[in-house]
């Protein structure tokens, strides 16, 4: 077997409208049309997609509250970490700078899913 690329990641969210505000408006990801018969939203990043799947009972566990990067998370590159940080703060999003000292920060979506944003 040879895996050739990562296609998508599915993220459970309790409130699709609230999650779409974060992924679509705050992060600015382009939404993709989908033709499925369950509640969700798809977003495109290059050749990769994020699939938001609504589950009202979702409960995200934060195993390490001191260092968010040591929890389950998705990581994306950004053009400017400073601009990203300001946009997140302006939208009331929590942030935690990377403890490693590299140009990266962590934020959480409305359900507590952790997103890493790194300036590469």
Task: Give short descriptive properties of this protein.
120 residues; alpha/beta; 2,3-Dihydroxybiphenyl 1,2-Dioxygenase, domain 1; four-stranded mixed β-sheet; 18% helix
Describe this structure in words.
This protein has 120 residues and is an alpha/beta fold. The chain has helices at 16-26, 81-90, and strands spanning 8-13, 31-32, 40-45, 48-54, 73-78, 95-97, 104-108, 114-119. The protein folds into 2 domains: 8-54, Roll (2,3-Dihydroxybiphenyl 1,2-Dioxygenase, domain 1); 68-119, 2,3-Dihydroxybiphenyl 1,2-Dioxygenase, domain 1 (Roll), CATH 3.10.180.10. It is built from 2 helices and 8 strands. The N and C termini lie far apart (30 Å).
In order across it, which strands form the biggest sheet? 1-4-3-2
The N- and C-terminal alpha carbons lie at a distance of 30 Å
Structural class: alpha/beta
The domain count comes to: 2
CATH H level of the largest domain: which superfamily? 2,3-Dihydroxybiphenyl 1,2-Dioxygenase, domain 1
Tally of helical runs: 2
Low-confidence parts lasting 5 or more residues at pLDDT below 50? none
CA-based shape:
globular
| Largest β sheet strand count, sense and barrel closure | 4 strands, mixed
- H-E string: EHEEEEHEEE
Helix percentage: 10-25%
Please count the beta strands (DSSP E, at least 2 residues each): 8
What's the CATH architecture name of the largest domain?
Roll
Instruction: Report mean pLDDT, rounded to a whole number.
Output: 93
Write down the Rg.
14 Å
- The top-level CATH class of the largest domain is Alpha Beta
Secondary-structure topology with pairs:
Elements: E1 8-13, H1 16-26, E2 31-32, E3 40-45, E4 48-54, E5 73-78, H2 81-90, E6 95-97, E7 104-108, E8 114-119
Parallel strand pairs: 1-4, 5-8
Antiparallel strand pairs: 2-3, 3-4, 6-7, 7-8
